[in-house]
Amino acid sequence: MSNIGLMLLCHEKEGTKKNLIKNIFNILRRLLSSNLPDGAIKKAELYDEFNIFTVRLPYRLSELKKPNFFTMHRLKKIIRKLCSDYSIDRCFFPGSMPEELDIDCCIKNPFSGYFIYTAMLVNILKIISDRKGKDIRGLSVAIIHGRGHDLLYSYIKLLSTLSKYLTIITHEKDNVEKIIDDIFEETGLSVRVTDSVASGIEDAEVIVNLTDLCDFNISKNIKSNASVINYGSVKTDKIEFSDIIINDIDIILPKKFEEMMGKDVYKFYKKAELAEIILLNKLEIGTYAIGNSADYTVIDNLSRQFQNDGFKLIPIIN
User: Can you tell me the distance from the alpha carbon of 159 to that of 141, in angstroms, rounded to the nearest whole number?
Assistant: First the structure.
């Protein structure tokens, strides 16, 4: 069984009313007790043997920005008791919390939502193909390569069973051609490789950008009608993009998950963050993926789990 804890906080205005007796009582309770108020802990059974606990801590964010000794002492007691009582393996503070509040198994949320955006390439391509009224296999895709080869390799392999027309634009033509040869032997996919941005995107219907376009020496002005999935920067005065540019995604969680976790959790965690927390821990990948975001197997498994479990995405378009 896997149990994950998500820490929530009190509203900033909560508990600030000038009631001297009540304030004194609350201070004493904070100093002496590690018990949480009734209703502070909520359990959501999202899968068999996989639960999310949302825990409303009796603190405001402003109180935890620079916590004193007594606050830290009590917070540690609460976290340790919570993890022991509910067999919680890992728990996370909201991203707004200071770094120094890492306590044993409870750390600042490392899941930003960017990894799930990276892993959703095929899902985004399907949305674009539907928008264009084409089969995804008929799309002409150009990938603009940046630094490193792992993510490029993963994307080529992911598209090897889907794409008939694939172009790679890169500064490292010789090295990339070696990667292409390996994938060709495995899948039979034929890929064009070029170091010219103008030539590479000329007939592209979709551009997947993995770099800062300013890193390329683009000698002439270019107009492109391609849809762009941007994982880098497309700020350049050399290319005029006339179609959509996707810079991120929003996530729609399965309705039953939203209902079970309640509304308060969304005040402290974005839905993309929650999707990463749920799916990566469900797949027993966890924070491993944060440092290995280009791993083909991880990307493929996450994409499949995302679709099978009823998650949906909405591209954020500029």
Answer: 9
Q: How much is the CA Rg of the chain, to the nearest whole Å?
A: 24
Q: What is the DSSP string of 62-131?
A: HHHHS--HHHHHHHHHHHHHHHHHTT-SEEEE-TTS-GGG-BTTEEE----SHHHHHHTHHHHHHHHHHH
**Spatial separation of the C-alpha atoms in residues 215 and 236, rounded to whole Å:** 10
CA-to-CA distance for 216 and 210, rounded, in angstroms?
Answer: 12
Token couple for 132: 């264009």
| H helix or E strand, kind and range, residue 297 | helix 296-308
Q: Which domains does the chain have, with CATH numbers?
A: 2-109 (no CATH), 121-248 (3.40.50.1370), 249-317 (no CATH)
Q: Kindly give the confidence (pLDDT) of every residue in the chain, 318 residues in length, as a single tens digit, with 9 standing for 90 and above.
A: 789 999 999 987 655 555 556 555 555 555 556 678 888 999 999 999 899 999 999 988 988 888 888 888 889 999 999 999 999 989 999 998 887 777 878 899 999 999 999 999 999 999 999 999 999 999 999 999 988 888 998 999 899 888 888 999 999 998 898 888 888 777 777 899 999 999 999 999 999 999 999 989 888 899 999 999 999 999 988 999 999 999 999 999 999 999 999 999 999 999 999 999 999 989 888 765 565 556 888 888 999 999 999 999 999 997
